[in-house]
Amino acid sequence: MAWTIGKVKITKIVEMALTGGTRFILPQATPEQTREMPWLIPDFASPEGRLVMSVHSWVVETPTRRIVVDTCIGNDKQGRGVPHWNGLDKPFLQDMAAAGYPADSIDTVICTHLHVDHVGWNTRLVEDRWIPTFDNARYLFGRTEYDYWKTHSTDAAHAAVFADSVQPVVEAGKVDLVDSDARLTDEITLIPTPGHSAGHMALHIRSEGEEALLSGDVAHHPCQMAHLDWSSSFDTDEQQSTKTRRTLFSRFADTPTLVFGGHFGPGRILRDGDAFRFVATQ
Ligand SMILES: [Zn+2]
């Protein structure tokens, strides 16, 4: 599936689709609560009130660059906090190639943040070593985000992610640390969106009068647009993440901006009373 924003093409590559089983991420989004938001059904929830989400990458092709935004969970990883994310064997790279983007054609990788399901395909396992998957790419990590995890990957799960999916790319000399408000190309500017993680960044795309927002994990699911204070279990700073949701969604609500979430989308944000809701774009 692909969408165009002026001269920019955005393609969704799904690694894993999920319905339900997501309560561990958003404990407040019970089936009862979810059914109170009928606008979520069927695009973002089942009629029973189970959340529909996916783990995916967005490939962003501009007139000059081929960029992968976020790199899912990855194959062959071990020590993940979510047991069924260990030892995956998914055709993610084949799917990318089939969509017209073989790994060696990618020149830029950017991670909105350095969590387990956004860095996995940064590396792949070759003869017991983790090597960069996108050999011709510069990898852009947020400086704030990288510095945070360098000193805060203290529990075993975070340490494993940092060791097999972040540090090998740094050691291969392929990483550029960027400021959270950096301008990447004529069309793409970063927006600092802390809260879910210390240095989380969103991408703002503008081309020929059209706009898109790649919002990463500012929200894991559109239910957080109606309930801005529903933080995910993985938010580093819940107050800050609530604040960031309000600021970011206020800025783009009721505009034609297409919003591509880290685990949903695309669609458009509408104001709804004191909060927001989300309408899917097919
Ligand atoms: Zn995520």
Automatic annotation (TrEMBL):
Residues 54-263 form the Metallo-beta-lactamase domain. GO terms for molecular function: hydrolase activity; metal ion binding. InterPro entries: MBL_superfamily_lactonases (IPR051013), Metallo-B-lactamas (IPR001279), RibonucZ/Hydroxyglut_hydro (IPR036866). Keywords: Hydrolase, Metal-binding, Zinc. CDD domains: metallo-hydrolase-like_MBL-fold. Belongs to the metallo-beta-lactamase superfamily. This is MBL fold metallo-hydrolase.
